[in-house]
Amino acid sequence: MTAVQLHTPLGEDGAGLYSLSTRGCFDVINLNTDLMMETTDAVLAKIPGGGAVTFCDYGTADGGTSIPLFNKLVKKCKDQQADRDVWVFYEDQPGNEWKSVFYHALGQLKVPGSDQTYMQEHPRGVYVAAVGRSFHHQTLPDNSLHVGFAATCMHWLSALPGKLGPENIHHSQLPADDPLLLPFKEQAAKDWSNILLHRARELAVGGRLVIVNFCIDADGQCLGRSKNLKRTMYDTKRDHWIAMAKEGRITMEELANTNFPNYYRTPEETEAPLKDPNSEVYKAGLRLVNSFTRVTPCPYRASWIANPQQDAITYARDYVLTTRTWSNATYLGGLSDSRSPDEKSALVDELFERYAQDVAKSPADHGMDYCHCILTVEKV
Fold first, then answer.
1. Residue 295, φ and ψ in degrees, nearest 5
2. pLDDT in tens for each of the 380 residues of the chain?
């Protein structure tokens, strides 16, 4: 079993490239804003005497995609009681884009849907802090959190439990009964239980989490594989990586070493520890309030369909970049350490340029539709 870094930022810290290149994440969070507002209402009603409210944005990346959401949440708290203190914690790994997080919160980096951030709107009584530790650990004090939010992050595993075979890069490419999948299922179940146990300790009684998890739904849909798409994202990336191995650009060993350390749980796998009275999660006080699945269409593909006269390769490179922001490190990690960093980067550049050239031939066939299991959890 190999320890992994869940996500290595792409681009210069302080530039906010992740948010600039992930339009779909804004759509996903926007679609869950009403749920978060309702969740916050339910929790505020239980905080005695208008006390301070603590939020946490888990797996925040550069913090930009959740700014419009937290603008509304902080405004709700302040509208209810102007002198109420509000804390917003941003959680991610030590090597995260922390400059970008604070630039976004302070309004020095702009994002769509936010003319003025909550820190600009409320210069007093609102506090922002960073937690440079993975959500696979406890990140806040016991009983301190009121509302937690996690979008598109908790599919990353704490360790790579095995390999997926010489011609697979992601577990979703394997049939459900493939024995190579079992270590990933077991690691994902263990990690999910631990993630929830850490959150149970952090939450105050009556506090809630809204977790927007990548999943494989009842129709077999998942990220980059949906009923809307003729080509699947992971298969297409894999095919180009295989082609580079067959051409001698990378070795067959490097191909086999390229495995995504994540797992898209089914709704049943997601809900299980929250429903089982014998589970440690249930005993820790966490209860499932509601759960549902949703497919969010790829905004890049939608923009192409709306305007197919645009330049195909320019469009394709923009689309491919959104798939690279979170996957770049996995391809770099598959390459041998005998290669220089520049050589590794050049090979991964080549992979994504091949992908872009492929997309440009038939843009409507490709897309990164999102498929999520969205659950609300309360500590009782």
1. -100, 125
2. 555 555 677 667 877 788 887 889 999 999 999 999 999 999 999 987 778 999 999 999 999 999 999 999 999 999 999 999 999 999 999 999 999 999 999 999 999 999 999 999 999 999 999 999 999 999 999 999 999 999 999 999 999 999 998 889 999 999 999 999 999 999 999 999 999 999 999 999 999 999 999 999 999 999 999 999 999 999 999 999 999 999 999 999 999 999 999 999 999 999 999 999 999 999 999 999 999 999 999 999 999 999 999 999 999 999 999 999 999 999 999 999 999 999 999 999 999 999 999 999 999 999 999 999 999 999 99
Taking the C-alpha atoms of residue 77 and residue 84, their distance in angstroms, rounded to an integer, is 7
Q: State the Cα–Cα distance between residues 374 and 188, nearest whole angstrom.
A: 17
- Amino acid letter for position 151: A
Q: What is the DSSP letter of 286?
A: E
Burial class (CB in 10 A: 0-12, 13-18, 19+), 24: buried
| Beta-bridge partner residues of 91 | 131
Distances (CA, A) of 197 to 60, 140, 295: 20, 12, 28
Quick one: CA dihedral 192, 320, 325, 254, positive or negative? positive
DSSP letter (8 states) at residue 220: S
Q: How far apart are CA 250 and CA 342, in angstroms?
A: 14
Report angle CA 108, 317, 99 to the nearest 5 degrees: 25
Partners of 296 in the beta sheet? 370
Q: What helix, strand, coil percent values describe the chain, rounded to 5? A: 45, 20, 40
Are 26 and 151 in contact by the 8 Å Cβ rule? The answer is: no
Say which amino acid occupies 62.
Answer: D
End-to-end CA distance of the chain: give it in Å, rounded: 35
Q: Which DSSP state fits 174?
A: S
CA distances from 248 to 164, 234, 298 (A): 21, 21, 33
User: What's the rounded Cα separation, in Å, for the pair 200 and 380?
Assistant: 10
Length of the chain measured in residues: 380
Tokens coding 306: 């709306």
